[in-house]
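Write out this protein's structure.
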Amino acid sequence: MLTRARRFGRAVVALATGAMLAGCDAGRPPLGELRLRTEDFTIRVSPETRPTRALEPIYWRVMVHDAKTGLPIQGGQGRIFGTNKDMKTVANGLEETGELGTYRGNLMFVTAGMWAMAIQFRRDSTQILQKTQDWTQDILSADEPGNIRTPTSTRVTDTAKAPAVPDSTRKPVP
């Protein structure tokens, strides 16, 4: 009788653990992440700065893995670049971060609109640069120059509970 209850209890625990683990994931990919391939690399790229606006530095996170083994590529060299319909071009190199196979670069777009983007990457300086397929990135119009507004939110306050803070610029009324 006791062994049957133990078996049932263990089965319930095993099922609950399995259901809990099935609900977990390894983390979602960053918002707007693109997966690109070259002959030797699998490249995932996503903008860290959102929304992507003209005249602001846009930081890009680029993760590079070997296409055959799936291992992250350390010590590689690459660049990210874009061109708009008016043939304005922006480009910048990628620098390694502390994470395995992760690189970071930034671009500042001069105009809003659609930009054709791509990445070139190589394992080291003895290899040729391999270019990804182009993708289009919508760059929004810039904020007004000098606009340094702080985000505001309305807070509901209860004036009966909170004492009023004295105004130091006014003289007290006798």
